[in-house]
Task: inverse folding
C-alpha cells in the first residue's frame, strides 16, 4: 500500500502488516515536473491504464458491479454517450 495523502488521525496497525507480510510506503503526490516525468516514463515503456469503458446509461450497472466486487479495471464513462440523454431547452 502506498499512502499518497496524510490521513488524520493516521490509522495504522502493525500486526496485520507484519503477519501478512505486507508493505507500507508513503509518497508526496508530486508536482508538474514529477507528473511529467512519470508520463514520459510510461510513454517510453508503453505503460497505459487498464480501464473498462462504459456508456453513461450503464452507470447503475457499473455501480452494482462495484458493490458486488465484479470490477477488475477502473470504469471510464464514455463522454460521447452523455449527450444522448441531454435535451436542449
Result:
Amino acid at each position: 500500500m502506498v499512502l499518497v495523502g496524510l490521513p488524520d488521525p493516521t490509522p495504522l496497525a502493525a500486526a496485520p502488516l507484519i503477519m501478512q507480510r505486507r508493505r507500507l510506503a508513503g509518497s508526496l503526490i508530486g508536482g508538474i515536473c514529477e507528473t511529467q516525468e512519470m508520463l514520459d516514463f510510461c510513454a517510453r515503456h508503453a505503460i497505459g491504464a487498464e480501464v473498462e469503458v462504459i456508456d453513461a446509461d450503464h452507470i447503475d450497472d457499473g455501480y452494482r458491479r462495484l458493490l458486488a466486487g465484479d470490477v477488475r479495471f477502473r470504469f471510464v464513462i464514455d463522454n460521447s454517450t452523455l449527450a444522448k440523454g441531454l435535451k436542449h431547452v
